[in-house]
Design a protein that fits this description.
Helix Hairpins, 730 residues, HATPase_C_sf, phosphoprotein, alpha/beta, five-stranded mixed β-sheet
Length: 730
C-alpha cells in the first residue's frame, strides 16, 4: 500500500512539473467537441477505460480553453462512467462538479441532464428517494423550459419508477397515465421495456395478475429484442418479485438467476480493473489542478526557507526553548522528590479508599441490576396493555391520555436503559464489537429514525460524506450509531426552523486504520461558554425550563464515555443564538478481504408459511396476557403455563415449535427448567424472555441450553424474526 502511494505521488509531481514547463496551448471548439463525443461513444460501448482516458484529456483542454460547456460535458461523461462502475459516491462528486460549471452557462439541456442523472443515482442506487425525486423535479422544470417533450417523457418515466420502487403507486399513477398516453409519440424501442415493466408493477400491486403477467413478459421480450441489458435485468428482477408474491417460487427463482447473470455481464471484472486505472488518472488530474493553484504560494515559501537569517533565528529560538526545558526538568525533579515522601504516606490511605470504592461499585451494580429488573417487569405490562387497548379499541387510538401513558412508560424505560449503560461502561463491562458495515447506511438509518423529531421542529438534516471514505468499514456500528443518534437528536431538539449538518471527512490513513472526522453542526439556540464543560456530566440539563425539552440528561455523558471506548474525545464549539458544533475522530478498520467474505456469506432464506405452536412459561399474569396477545396477533398458537414444573409436565405430552422462558420465577427458575427440558431429550428452541440485562445472564443461559435472549419490553418484530430463524435452523 505504501509503495502504491509513493508511485502515485511521483506520477503526480512529475505531471505537475511537466505541465509547468510546457506552455499553455489553446484548442479549437471543434477539437473539444470531437473529444467529448469520442468519450461519450466509448461510454455507450461500455469501454470505460478509453472513455475515462479521453474524458480526462477533454477536461484538461476544456479548462485550459476556459470552455464551461465542454468542461461540463467532460464531467458528465466521467460521472456517468463511475455510475456504470457502481462507484456512486464518485459519480455524485463529478456530477456536482459539472453542475457548478453548467450553472455558469445558459445551457438548460446540460442542467436538465445532470439533475436527471443525479435523480437516478439517489433513487435507484443510494435509495434516498426524497432527494432523488427533488432532482427529477428540477430536471422536469428544465425540460419544460426548453420545451423538450421527449425529455419530459423520460423524466416522468423515472419519477414513476421511483414512486413504484417505494410502493407509492397512487402518487406515481398520474405520471404512468402520461407515459402510456404519449408512449407512441415520444417513446422508442429503448424505453418500451421500462414502460411495460412499470405497467406490470402497477397492475401487480392492484391485483390484476393476468395483466401484470402479460406486461412483464412483454418487458422481457422487448429487452431481449433491443439488447437493453440494464432494463432487461430490472424486468427480470421485478417479475421475480411479482411471481414470489403470487407464490410461484420456481419461476421467481429462475428470473432472479437471469437477473444475476445479466448483472455479471454488465460489470465484467476485467473492464472494471482497466477502468479503475483510468479513473485513478482522472483523479490525479483533479489533484494536479489543485496543486497548480497553490504553486505560487509554495515558491514563495521555498524562498523564505532558503534564507540563512531565518534559519539562524529558528535555531536560536529552539536553543532557548531547550534551555527552558532543561531548567523545568531540574526544577520538577526537586519538586518530585518532595512529593514522593508525601505520596508514600498517603499510599496506604489510597489503598483503603480504593477497596471501599470497589466495594461500593459492586453494591451499586447489584442495586442498578435489581432496580432495572423490577422496573422493566411492570413496564412490559404497561406498554403491552397500552398497545392492546389501541389495537382492540380503535376509538382510543387518538386519546391524549393513552398516548401520555405510552409515552411515560417508554420515557421511564429509556431512563432505565441509560442508567444501565452508564453503569456498564463505568464497570468496564462493555466491549466494542467488530462488524462490517456501510457508514452511509448507518447515518441514513439514524436520520430516518429521527425524521419525526426533525419534522416536528421543521428542521432539515444535511449529510456530507467524503468520497475518499471506503464504502465498507469494520468496527462497532451499534455504538457509533448510538453516538450519532444522541448528538443529532440533541441538535434537532434545540433547533427550530433550521438545519443540522452531519459531515464525515477522511482525516488520515495508518496501515488499515482509517481515521474519520465526524462533525455534527446545528444553527440552534447554542450553549453558553460557562456551561460547555457541564453538559457532559450525568443528569445535567442546561437552561431547562418546566415546559422545555425532555430528556434524562444522560445522552452527552454516554457519548463521551462511548468515545472513550474508541480511544477518542469530543470537542465542542458553540455560541448563543448561533449554533453548536460537536467534533470527534474515530479510527475504523478497512479490509476488503474480510468484507467480501462476510458479504459472500449472506444468505437469503425463503420459508413457507406454517402454523407455529408456542409455549410461554411466565409467572406474572399481566405479562402472560401481554405476551399471549402479542403471539396470537401473528396467527401463532399460544399456550401459557405459570411455572417451570407445569412446563415440564405439558412438554411431556405435547410438541411445541418454540418455548418462551421467563428467568425469574418461583419454585424453579428459567435456567433450571431449561436444563431439565434438555435432559428430557427435547431440542425445541428456547428463547429467554426476561427483564435482566442480557450481559448478566448470557453465560449461564448458554450453559443451560437457552438458544437466544430477548429483553422485556421487546420489539414484537424482533421476537418473530428470532422465532423464524430458530425454527428454520432446527
Amino acid at each position: 500500500m505504501c509503495q502504491i502511494r509513493v508511485i502515485l505521488l511521483v506520477l503526480l509531481v512529475s505531471n505537475t512539473f511537466n505541465d509547468l514547463i510546457a506552455q499553455k496551448k489553446l484548442y479549437s471548439k471543434k477539437e473539444l467537441t470531437e473529444l467529448t463525443e469520442q468519450a461519450s461513444h466509448f461510454l455507450n460501448d461500455a469501454n470505460f477505460e478509453k472513455s475515462l482516458k479521453i474524458s480526462k484529456e477533454a477536461l484538461h483542454k476544456s479548462i485550459v480553453h476556459n470552455d464551461s460547456v465542454s468542461t461540463t460535458i467532460s464531467y458528465i461523461t466521467i460521472a456517468a462512467n463511475y455510475a456504470e462502475l457502481a462507484e456512486f459516491d464518485k459519480a455524485i462528486y463529478f456530477y456536482q462538479k459539472g453542475l457548478l460549471y453548467a450553472n455558469k452557462t445558459h445551457n438548460d439541456t446540460l442542467k436538465n441532464r445532470i439533475n436527471n442523472n443525479l435523480g437516478n443515482i439517489y433513487c435507484f442506487e443510494k435509495k434516498q428517494y426524497i432527494k432523488g425525486i427533488n432532482f427529477f423535479e428540477n430536471a422536469l422544470k428544465y425540460s419544460i423550459k426548453i420545451a423538450d417533450s421527449s425529455q419530459i417523457f423520460m423524466t416522468k418515466l423515472n419519477i414513476t419508477w421511483a414512486y413504484f420502487d417505494v410502493g407509492h403507486f397512487e402518487k406515481g399513477y398520474t405520471n404512468l397515465e402520461f407515459i402510456n398516453g404519449n408512449n407512441i409519440k415520444y417513446g422508442d424501442k429503448s424505453t418500451a421495456g421500462v414502460v411495460y415493466m412499470l405497467n406490470g408493477m402497477y397492475h401487480g400491486n392492484k391485483g390484476n395478475d393476468e395483466k401484470a403477467n402479460a406486461y412483464f413478459l412483454n418487458a422481457i421480450k422487448s429487452g431481449n429484442e433491443t439488447n437493453e441489458k440494464s432494463d432487461l435485468s430490472f424486468a427480470h428482477l421485478e417479475y421475480s418479485k411479482f411471481l414470489l408474491k403470487k407464490g410461484d417460487y420456481k419461476k421467481a427463482y429462475q428470473n432472479l438467476i437471469l437477473y444475476n447473470k445479466i448483472t455479471e455481464i454488465l460489470y465484467n471484472k476485467d473492464k472494471l480493473k482497466k477502468a479503475n486505472v483510468a479513473g485513478i488518472n482522472v483523479e490525479l488530474d483533479e489533484y494536479k489542478r489543485e496543486i497548480e493553484k497553490f504553486e505560487s504560494e509554495k515558491e514563495a515559501q521555498h524562498q523564505i526557507v532558503q534564507k540563512t537569517k531565518t534559519i539562524v533565528i529558528l535555531f536560536m529560538l529552539i536553543l532557548f526553548v531547550l534551555l527552558l526545558f532543561v531548567y523545568n526538568l531540574f526544577k520538577n525533579n526537586n519538586f518530585r522528590k518532595k512529593l514522593n515522601s508525601e505520596l508514600s504516606k498517603t499510599n496506604e490511605q489510597l489503598i483503603l479508599a480504593k477497596e471501599k470504592a470497589e466495594e461500593a461499585s459492586v453494591l451499586k451494580s447489584q442495586f442498578v441490576s435489581t432496580i432495572s429488573h423490577e422496573l422493566r417487569t411492570p413496564l412490559y405490562g404497561v406498554v403491552g396493555i397500552t398497545n392492546m387497548l389501541i389495537d382492540e379499541h380503535k376509538e382510543l387510538a387518538n386519546s391524549p391520555h393513552l398516548s401520555s401513558l405510552k409515552f411515560s412508560a417508554r420515557y421511564l424505560l429509556s431512563l432505565v436503559n441509560d442508567i444501565l449503560q452508564i453503569n456498564k461502561i463505568e464497570d468496564n463491562r462493555m466491549i466494542l464489537e467488530n462488524m462490517t458495515f456501510n457508514i452511509s447506511d448507518e447515518i441514513n438509518m439514524v436520520i430516518n429514525s429521527l425524521s419525526f423529531l426533525a419534522k416536528n421542529n421543521n428542521n432539515f438534516v444535511i449529510v456530507k460524506i467524503d468520497p475518499a471514505i471506503p464504502e465498507y468499514l469494520i468496527g462497532d456500528k451499534l455504538r457509533l450509531s448510538q453516538i450519532i443518534m444522541n448528538l443529532v437528536s440533541n441538535a434537532l431538539k434545540f433547533t427550530l426552523n433550521g438545519e443540522v449538518t452531519i459531515s464525515l471527512n477522511l482525516e488520515k490513513i495508518e496501515d488499515e486504520s482509517y481515521f474519520i472526522n465526524f462533525e455534527i453542526k446545528d444553527n440552534g439556540i447554542g450553549i453558553a461558554l460557562d456551561d460547555q464543560e457541564k453538559i457532559f456530566d450525568k443528569f445535567v440539563q442546561i437552561g431547562r425550563k418546566e415546559t422545555d425539552y425532555q430528556g434524562t440528561g444522560l445522552g452527552l455523558s454516554i457519548v463521551k464515555q462511548l468515545l472513550g471506548l474508541f480511544n477518542s474525545t469530543i470537542a465542542i464549539q458553540s455560541s448563543i443564538d448561533v449554533g453548536t458544533t460537536f467534533k470527534f475522530v474515530i479510527a475504523f478498520e478497512y479490509n476488503m478481504e474480510k468484507t467480501i467474505e462476510i458479504i459472500n456469506n449472506i444468505q437469503v432464506d425463503i420459508t413457507s408459511n406454517q402454523t407455529i405452536k408456542v409455549l410461554v412459561v411466565e409467572d406474572n399474569h399481566i405479562n402472560q396476557l401481554v405476551t399471549k396477545k402479542t403471539i396470537e396477533k401473528n396467527n401463532y398458537k399460544c399456550i401459557v403455563v405459570d411455572n417451570g414444573y407445569a412446563a415440564l409436565e405439558i412438554l411431556d405430552k405435547e410438541f411445541f415449535d418454540v418455548i418462551l422462558m421467563d428467568i425469574n420465577m418461583p419454585l424453579i427458575n428459567g435456567f433450571e427448567t431449561t436444563r431439565k427440558i434438555r435432559l428430557m431429550g427435547i431440542d425445541t428452541p428456547i428463547v429467554a424472555l426476561t427483564a435482566f440485562d442480557k450481559a448478566e445472564i448470557t453465560e449461564e443461559a448458554l450453559s443451560a441450553g437457552i438458544n437466544d435472549i430477548i429483553i422485556k419490553p421487546f420489539d414484537s418484530l424482533k421476537l418473530f424474526s428470532i422465532i423464524t430463524i430458530l425454527i428454520s435452523k432446527n
